[in-house]
Amino acid sequence: TGFKTNEKGYGNCVWCGEYGKLDPHHTLTQSRGGKEEDVVWLCRRCHNKIENDIEKAKELKLYRSGYKCTK
Fold first, then answer.
1. Are 35 and 27 contacting, i.e. CB atoms less than 8 angstroms apart?
2. Under 8 Å between Cβ of 49 and 13
3. DSSP-based three-state secondary structure for 32
4. Residue 25 · residue 38 · CB < 8 Å
5. How far apart are CA 13 and CA 21, in angstroms?
6. What span, in angstroms and rounded, lies between the C-alpha atoms of 10 and 13?
7. Residue 22, beta-bridge partner list
8. For every residue of 39-64, which 3-state class applies, written as one string?
9. Roughly how many angstroms between the first and final C-alpha of the chain, as a whole number?
10. How many whole angstroms separate alpha carbon 42 and alpha carbon 19?
């Protein structure tokens, strides 16, 4: 990922490209071992779409199942 928002949380959505206020979206949930490198930044509209359609999120590689092993 490596993408950062500005200090106020604005930038371009990684899905639609629209500039605006962004939400962090964990491609691998924190409860499954997801870390900062597993975050992508989405506008609220796209984030809501992805959260409500896991199959589409998987297709777009915005959701990963399984766990990450950490030491």
1. no
2. no
3. helix
4. no
5. 9
6. 9
7. 43
8. EEEEEHHHHHHHHCCHHHHHHCCCCC
9. 22
10. 10
| Angstrom distances, CA of residue 52 to CA of 3, 23, 43, 55, 65 | 23, 15, 14, 9, 15
Give Rg (Cα) of the chain: 12
Q: 29-57 pLDDT, tens per residue?
A: 887 877 888 889 999 999 999 889 988 88
Q: Which two tokens stand for residue 10?
A: 């604005």
* Whole-angstrom distance, CA of residue 65 vs CA of residue 40: 16
Q: Which residues pair with 21 in a beta bridge?
A: 10
Q: What is the pTM of this model?
A: 0.73
Structure tokens at 25: 């979206």
The identity of residue 20, as a single letter, is G
Nearest to 64 by CA among 44, 37, 38: 38
